Amino acid sequence: MKPRNAVSIALPIPPVALRPNARVHYHARGRAVKQYRGLARVLARSAMTGTPRWTAATVGATWYFPTQRRRDRDNLLASLKAAFDGLVDAGLLADDSGLQHLPHKTIVERGCEPRVVLTITPQETAP
Predict the structure, then answer these.
(1) Is 116 or 91 the better-scoring residue by pLDDT?
(2) If DSSP codes are grouped into helix, strand and coil, which group holds residue 61?
(3) How far apart, in Å, are the Cα atoms of 107 and each of 31, 43, 83, 92?
(4) What percentage of the chain's residues is helix, strand, coil (to nearest 5)?
(5) H helices within the chain, ranges in order?
(6) What band does 98 get if pLDDT is binned at 50, 70 and 90?
(7) What's the rounded Cα separation, in Å, for the pair 113 and 91?
């Protein structure tokens, strides 16, 4: 259940090119960043009511995977950088420097579509 005034968006799992340890050509990485950032921007705009432009917010990420496998939680969060920039592009946040990251969750659902759900909640003051 999302808190009041929160915005939730469901994104596909970030592509391999966005992983911090990926060894891909910079053009391929740039295309992946542009595409994922644009998708986050469009989904955030459609989930918003009005133009909040929050200066401080918390973000929680819930990852859904179809298989139980070991995953590096730090790399999962780092692969979402383009999505956080897309939230700024959408006008949800004034700047992503005021974004506080909550501990993220990993959920295994057999047969599910792999995705990450971001829940962004405004804060009164910057952290």
Answers:
(1) 116
(2) strand
(3) 29, 22, 20, 26
(4) 35, 25, 40
(5) 26-47, 73-78, 81-90
(6) confident
(7) 28
pLDDT tens for 101-122 read: 999 899 998 988 999 999 999 9
Residue 118, both tokens: 């971001």
Rg of the chain in Å (alpha carbons): 14
- Taking the C-alpha atoms of residue 87 and residue 109, their distance in angstroms, rounded to an integer, is 27
Q: Which two tokens stand for residue 39?
A: 């998708």
Structure tokens at 123: 């804060």
Rounded to the nearest 10 degrees, how much is the dihedral formed by the CA atoms of 7, 12, 97, 91? -50
- pTM for the model: 0.89
Q: What is the sign, positive or negative, of the torsion defined by CA atoms of 84, 60, 109, 44?
A: negative
